[in-house]
Write a structure and sequence with these properties.
about 350 residues, about 40% helix, about 15% strand, Transferase(Phosphotransferase), domain 1, Phosphorylase Kinase, domain 1, alpha+beta, disordered N terminus
């Protein structure tokens, strides 16, 4: 990772409701004037009501984060899942509307990504059908088994080939890069930088040894950010709504964030999730040794993720406790607990 792209600091200042509607109009999707901004920190996401009665979701990508090639790989993977009747929401194919004053540049075959220059800024967006749902009911193991079957089906498709342009999960790509960025740009209290850096270095060394011990474990295309907020539940079961963080990685990356208990209850959750998963794809049990190292990588990466976007007004509002002395003290303590 590098220092944030200048356009990524306040990238959405010109993304007014009028421009959002004009952007969709430029690809032939005419809104009836109603739109609702949905909860999203990384990108900006809008639910838009169209004149023909459809409701779509438009996602405007954060500048400087993904290349066009990386975004299109995400789109192709989602479309590949949908073609296998795996419930993932694939983007719509777009076509430029010659009558629109905005002139989008379309990317993809078929085109699923549109780019528009507006007031000196480039806005890239995609549009998908709206899919509603609720938070998965994980009170019992039957729901976890159902989600496990869903992920197993997704990974059976993900194992066919690797991404060429997207991130491959690893200690350097996810953890070490975030650690380096925080040390250089993170603005920690001076007295806390040395202990945080020491704890991060030791935790990352342990994580690297865990990955090295795994050796020849398979790397496949995975969702990458498979937590409960990215799974919607309907009467027909679960579906994913966001593959923005899709990457190459071990299968366990899409499983560990769904586990919420320790001890006997935690073991029951693992059995249920893997029982469903292995209905469609064999799971390498050795990957369970990566659960705690992956938790360490996510912890360090999350701190860097917020710090890089702090000038985006959405972030101070959402994470008011971030960057305080108590926050970094807690991070040092959590990392030391992980080491022990």
């Amino acid at each position: 990772m590098t220092a944030p792209h200048p356009a990524s600091l306040t990238p959405y200042a010109g993304l007014t409701p009028g421009f959002v509607l004009d952007a969709l109009d430029s690809v032939g999707l005419r809104g009836d004037g109603r739109l609702l901004q949905l909860n999203s920190y990384e990108n900006r996401v809008f639910q838009v009501f169209l004149e023909d009665g459809q409701v779509v979701v438009a996602k405007f990508y954060r500048p400087g984060r993904w290349s066009n090639a990386q975004i299109l790989e995400e789109h192709r993977f989602t479309a590949e899942l949908a073609a296998e009747e795996i419930p993932a929401v694939a983007p719509l194919v777009m076509a430029a509307d010659a009558t629109s004053q905005l002139k989008p540049t379309l990317h993809g075959d078929p085109p699923t990504l549109a780019c528009i220059e507006h007031e000196g800024e480039e806005h890239r967006f995609t549009v998908a059908p709206r899919r509603s749902g609720r938070e998965p009911p994980l009170e019992g193991t039957s729901e976890l088994a159902w989600i496990g079957r869903f992920i197993g089906r997704m990974h059976a498709v993900g194992a066919r080939r690797l991404f060429e342009h997207r991130v491959t999960l690893g200690v350097d790509a996810i953890g070490r890069a975030a650690r380096d960025w925080i040390c250089e740009h993170g603005d920690l209290p001076p007295e806390l930088l040395p202990p945080w850096q020491d704890a991060a270095d030791r935790a990352l060394d342990i994580a690297r040894k865990a990955f090295d011990r795994l050796g020849d474990a398979a790397t496949i295309r995975v969702h990458g950010d498979c937590h409960i907020g990215n799974v919607l539940w309907t009467d027909h079961g679960p579906h994913f709504v966001d593959l923005d963080d899709a990457m190459n990685g071990p299968a366990v990356q899409d499983l560990w964030m769904l586990l919420s208990a320790d001890g006997a209850e935690g073991r029951a959750q693992v059995r249920a999730l893997l029982g469903g998963y292995e209905s469609f794809r064999e799971f390498d049990d050795r990957e369970l040794a990566l659960v705690e190292p992956l938790r360490t990588l996510r912890m360090i990466h999350h701190s860097a993720w917020i710090a890089k976007r702090w000038k985006d007004p959405a972030f101070p509002a959402a994470f008011p406790w971030f960057g305080t002395t108590s926050y970094w003290q807690e991070q040092v303590q959590l990392l030391r607990e992980r080491i022990e």
